[in-house]
Design a protein that fits this description.
The chain has 740 residues and is an alpha+beta fold. It has 22 helices and 20 strands. It has 4 domains: 148 residues, no CATH class; 102 residues, no CATH class; 328 residues, 3-Layer(aba) Sandwich (Rossmann fold), CATH 3.40.50; 91 residues, no CATH class. The protein has a 6-stranded mixed β-sheet with strand order 13-17-18-9-19-20, sandwiched between helices. A 5-stranded antiparallel β-sheet has the order 8-7-10-11-12, with helices on one face. It starts with 16 loop residues before the first helix and ends with a helix.
């Protein structure tokens, strides 16, 4: 970490629309605290407008393409726009207390934005401890930083060298509480990072040594370009220490620190002094490091960065003989994790893929709790149903470099590791690698709960393997008066249920959990099947996430859902994926579906289509088009679903017949009558795809019909009336949308 001078804010963060957003934020914080607790601050929908590529590029310029916290090089497609003061639920890790009000109003404050690598952002999450009270909501940035005393180091305001010392082995030593907090919360002493810093320090010392003793001059300008190199803070700290020691040994005087190659002139002909000083610096580690590691440090609850599924290869697993899927794991600039959706006809292998993923990521006790029977996954001969001699194998590659492997032996026993020529270890929790697996939750197509029932409380994937397994009663957990997570869960449910206006999920005085929607209040156990199915799954996910991570916005893991569109109204199908991802942006959702409407929440490259080829083997379709550029009807007739047409078969036949009759040069009287009848029938078809287009189409059609019999003077008035009718209808439609 090094101190960095702020450059001018990008134009994106000086847009006039920011005034409109600020007024929305003011209105949000003006609501009563109990109402505000059930709502999310209105900033996420503005991210694409304000946090665009210009902001990212300016941050890259600001921090020389390096993480603001650890100074690791950040590749162009891997950097995150990170808020120094978190935009939601600021956490003090010492006490575990969160403040839901802090600091959404600083979401687009340039001085609060950092360029962060994914590891530092994953470790930091929403942690922001203070040695003072927090500023009141909507306090201006300048006043906020004057009032608060943060324990995290701000590289654009603070001098990190006052709080941190770099040791020769690449590890950091804290000088005060702010140093302790920054090291612990950001995990700045993680092993790989320390090795990188050590290599950088050694590179810098050797480069300058060779320059001083005159071995070569290719290092000219090294000090001038130092700040553009990864881990320059560590290198500069080491150089300053060695330079001062070398000057002392040489008996030379040089004010200040080494900031340019010209300063090396003070050591002309004294190369041995530099070498001896560098050796003393390396020896410094042995004396100081032992004390540092024995000292009391500022302890926090640190979670490792999440691991996400990058790819899976499934061989001889049920009906799948050999299938490989690559999942996009690139996150957006805001840190939202990518997901995946599996499409395909029935028996195309969607559920099998989800089961294979779940089994590979679970350990032995989890597989037993899910009641997964290994014999069910043994392959069968296609023509006789006899057992195949090939053992099922699943290999899952994770984003942290780990690989999870699972096999099933001929007796139906799970094998947690396998190799072609070595003995496999049995299902005893032994894994292919020692790293931690991601948190996993999985749900089958039937998702229901029994009111006041226990359900599969300990299983993370029971319903994916047992269609009769009930989820744990979500109402019981939400009714608990000691549950500190009700408000954030209620906020997330409001989005998942697509509630608007005053609609909400709330807890009555008697403890019952109620849903206010469409002008009426309903207990959760009396809701419709669609509500109950979605409610049970959503609350089960959120309960397990907050109990593990303490916060939904920063919870991390993998969630598998089979047939997520079951029981959902079209409006929910369009919004459910996007709502789940907004509620838990760092969770990887991998789901299957049958409805094109569900694709609205997916991004390009996240949808995989499974099909059976001419040999009845399950394969994944390649070269799929960009779903973000297609309408729903276009999706249905594309390679994603493969329908020949979205029209009713009779309508399609009528259109084809009408087109044929139009091409007949001299139709018979019967053909002329048929063509006229078809024209009248087809005129009743809706014009346009959206409600606005259909309104315009209806008004236009009415104008054309009336115009045929109107005189020339009347046609001008009819045209004006048609325009007025279109404007009136659009205004009515817009008013309804705003009212929602």
């Amino acid at each position: 970490m090094r101190k960095v001078k702020r450059i001018a804010a990008p134009h994106s963060l000086r847009r006039p629309e920011l005034l409109h957003w600020a007024s929305e934020m003011t209105a949000f914080y003006a609501r009563p605290a109990d109402v505000r607790a059930g709502l999310r601050p209105p900033f996420e929908r503005y991210n694409r407008l304000f946090l665009d590529e210009e902001v990212m590029q300016r941050l890259r310029d600001q921090f020389a393409g390096k993480c603001a916290y650890c100074e690791a090089r950040v590749e162009p497609d891997q950097g995150l726009i990170e808020n120094f003061r978190p935009v939601m639920s600021a956490l003090d890790p010492r006490s575990g207390q969160e403040s839901a009000d802090h600091y959404a109003w600083l979401a687009y404050e340039w001085r609060n934005l950092m360029l962060a690598c994914r590891e530092c952002a994953a470790y930091k999450r929403n942690a922001f401890p203070l040695a003072s009270p927090r500023a009141r909501a909507m306090t201006a940035y300048r006043e906020t930083v004057a009032i608060e005393r943060p324990l995290l180091i701000d590289p654009c305001r603070d001098d990190p060298s006052r709080h941190l010392s770099f040791l020769p082995d690449g590890y950091l030593l804290a000088r005060d509480d702010r140093g302790y907090a920054s090291i612990e919360i950001l995990a700045l002493n993680r092993e790989r990072l320390a090795r990188q810093r050590k290599d950088a320090i050694e590179f810098a010392l050797v480069t300058l040594e060779n320059k001083i003793v005159g071995r070569y001059s290719t290092s000219a300008g090294f000090m001038e370009q130092l700040d553009t190199l990864a881990h320059s803070g560590a290198m500069r700290a080491a150089i300053d220490w060695v330079f001062a020691e070398a000057l002392a040994r040489a008996g030379a005087a040089f004010p200040g620190k080494l900031r340019s190659d010209r300063g090396l002139a003070a050591l002309d002909g004294r190369g041995q002094d530099w070498i001896d000083a560098a050796a003393a610096y390396r020896d410094f580690q042995a004396r100081v490091l032992a004390q540092a590691r024995e000292s009391t440090v500022w302890r926090t609850r640190v979670h490792p960065p999440a691991a996400y599924i990058e790819s899976v290869r499934i061989r001889d697993f049920k009906a799948i003989d050999d299938l490989k899927l690559d999942f996009a794991t690139r996150s957006s600039q805001s840190g939202a994790t990518s997901g995946a959706m599996l499409l395909g006809e029935n028996a195309a292998g969607k559920s099998t893929v989800l089961q294979a993923l779940a089994l590979a990521l679970m350990d032995g006790p989890q597989r037993r709790a899910a009641r997964a029977d290994g014999a069910e996954f043994l392959p069968r001969e296609r023509r006789s149903w006899d057992p195949s001699p090939q053992p099922p194998r699943v290999e899952v590659r994770l984003s942290n470099g780990e690989t999870r492997r699972l096999g099933v032996d001929s007796m139906g026993r799970f094998v947690a590791d396998f190799a072609d020529d070595t003995d496999a270890s049995t299902d005893s929790g032994v894994r292919a690698s020692a790293g931690a697996a991601p948190m996993l939750l999985a749900y089958g197509a039937r998702r229901f709960f029994r009111a006041h029932g226990k359900g599969a409380a300990g299983a993370v994937a029971r319903s994916l393997f047992d269609p009769f397994a009930a989820l744990q009663d979500p109402g019981a957990w939400l009714r608990d008066p000691d549950n500190p997570h009700f408000d954030p869960v209620a906020r997330a449910l409001r989005e998942i249920f697509a509630l608007h206006g005053d609609d909400r999920v709330f807890r009555a005085e008697d403890g019952h959990v109620l849903v206010q929607a469409h002008g009426r209040v309903t207990p959760v156990e009396r809701m419709s099947d669609g509500y109950r199915a979605l409610f049970a799954m959503a609350v089960d996910i959120m309960r397990r996430m907050v109990e593990t991570w303490g916060n939904l916005e920063f919870a991390q893991g993998v969630v598998l859902v089979d047939e997520i569109d079951v029981h959902l109204h079209p409006r929910w199908k369009i919004e459910v994926i996007a709502a789940l991802r907004r509620a838990m942006p760092k969770v990887q959702f991998i789901v299957s579906a049958h409805d094109a409407l569900c694709l609205r929440g997916m991004r390009d490259g996240e949808v995989h289509v499974l099909y059976r080829d001419e040999d009845d083997r399950i394969r994944a379709r390649a070269n799929l088009p960009n779903i973000e550029l297609m309408r729903t009807d276009q999706l249905l007739t594309s390679d994603y679903f493969g329908l020949p047409s979205t029209a009713r078969p009779q309508t399609e036949a009528a259109l084809n017949r009408y087109a044929y009759l139009l091409g007949v040069p001299e139709p018979t009287p019967a053909q002329a009558r048929e063509r006229e009848r078809l024209a009248l029938d087809l005129e009743a078809l809706p014009r346009g795809d959206t409600p606005a287009e259909q309104l315009i189409g209806e008004a236009t059609e009415r104008y054309i019909r009336t115009r045929r019999s109107a005189s020339p003077p009347q046609r001008g008035r009819l045209r004006e009336q048609a325009l007025e009718e279109i404007v009136r209808r659009l205004e009515q439609r817009l008013g309804k949308e705003i009212g929602k």
